[in-house]
Specification:
single chain; alpha+beta; five-stranded mixed β-sheet; 8 helices
Length: 374
């Protein structure tokens, strides 16, 4: 219980698997009972398999020892056993199942029961979809007559779990249009806002009476603090008690439309997903920027403009003294006295700004291999 094993940390999962194998070695009769306890690694994920006898499994006990809790959780939520209640990260889901499986088998061994054909499997990636654990479970369960998922009972009454919901995972991507957050945010389409307005529609696809849940989970948007985000994504977790409900939610989530005019959205892996051809920040569509009393004519996207503006600041001024900002008053005076000029460096890309060579107009064009030059 005191070995942390978050699914994404393969080394931590391996340490947890080693603890499970050690517990099996301590409680089970491995020498005379015909028991083999081994760790199996598949694509970096470590699982544990405990077999009784040499015949194919007839009864399978399904467990996992990976958890959703990150390393360091035990420091603030330590394992505790008080008044008959266990507390700690991963206790319910599902380290108690691992302990019960091993100790139950040990108790049966002690009274002389023949456990030939029993297999206890403890996977290490259940919390992230069982990409490798699934293969092991299918192999072990192919000849089994019964399989029991050893997750703890529900609630204080200890209700027995007799079924499992099916799961579905979606990634929804909302595309907008990037723009500078301070200079011209009105030219952008905020993908984050569009996603925010879409989230209630996604959650509404659930049906509590049918036992169906559709829950937005991991959300991300934007790349820098001064840019209108042109992309926002959300991971969606779906649970259902029937295939019909899974198909319904899948069809409806693919049929959603954006509540904000302009941006599009897509769900990867489905060619029929709806998607709009809204501009993105990475496109080379023409765009004009101008400062009062200065010049600008370019096809640069917003992100590139940000880098050029930082270059201008770094040389001691800004083409618009009112936007000199942190450059200070002296740099602002220099900017008023002499407009800045970007010149070509020896290798043909945009070099430093030169403060002594005024230029009324600057044209930027795209060079080969994605480089920009004057």
């Amino acid at each position: 219980m005191e070995v942390e094993s978050p699914s994404s940390d393969y080394e931590a999962v391996a340490r947890g698997a080693a603890e499970v194998a050690q517990l099996a070695a301590e409680r089970l009769d491995l020498k005379t009972g015909g028991v083999t306890a081994e760790t199996l690694t598949d694509e970096g994920v470590t699982h544990v398999r405990i077999r009784f006898g040499s015949s194919d499994p007839r009864v399978l006990l399904v467990n996992h020892q990976d958890t959703v809790w990150p390393i360091g959780t035990l420091a603030r939520k330590p394992f505790a056993h008080e008044d008959g209640v266990l507390r700690g990260p991963g206790v319910f889901d599902m380290l108690t199942g691992v302990v019960m499986s091993i100790h139950a088998a040990a108790l049966l061994q002690e009274v002389g029961e023949d456990l030939t054909g029993l297999s206890i499997v403890v996977t290490g990636d259940e919390e992230v979809g069982s990409a490798t654990g699934r293969r092991l479970l299918l192999d072990e369960g192919r000849s089994a007559r019964a399989a029991f998922v050893m997750e703890g009972a529900i609630g204080e009454r200890g209700d027995l779990k007799i079924a499992r919901k099916g799961t579905a995972d979606w990634q929804v991507h909302v595309h907008g249009r990037a723009a500078h957050a301070g200079l011209d945010p009105e030219k952008g389409i905020n993908a984050g806002i569009a996603l925010g307005r879409l989230l209630p529609h996604i959650e509404a696809l659930g049906d509590p009476q049918a036992g169906t849940t559709v829950t937005p989970t991991i959300i991300s948007a934007g790349t820098t603090t001064n840019t209108v985000p042109d992309l926002a994504t959300v991971a969606v977790d779906g649970r259902a008690t029937s295939v019909a409900e899974q198909e319904r939610t899948d069809q409806q989530i693919r049929a959603l439309t954006s509540p904000v005019e302009g941006p599009g959205w897509r769900s990867p892996g489905a060619s029929e997903s709806r998607r709009w051809s809204a501009p993105r920040a990475s496109s080379s569509s023409g765009r004009r920027r101008s400062w009062p009393g200065s010049w600008a004519s370019t096809s640069l996207p917003a992100a590139r403009w940000g880098r050029l503006r930082r270059q201008l600041h770094g040389c001691g001024g800004h083409p618009d003294p009112r936007r000199a900002g942190s450059c200070g008053r002296r740099r602002a005076r220099r900017a008023r006295a002499c407009p800045l000029r970007l010149h070509r460096s020896a290798h043909g890309s945009a070099g430093r700004a030169h403060p002594r060579q005024p230029l009324r107009r600057l044209r930027l064009s795209r060079a080969g291999r994605g480089r920009w030059s004057l």
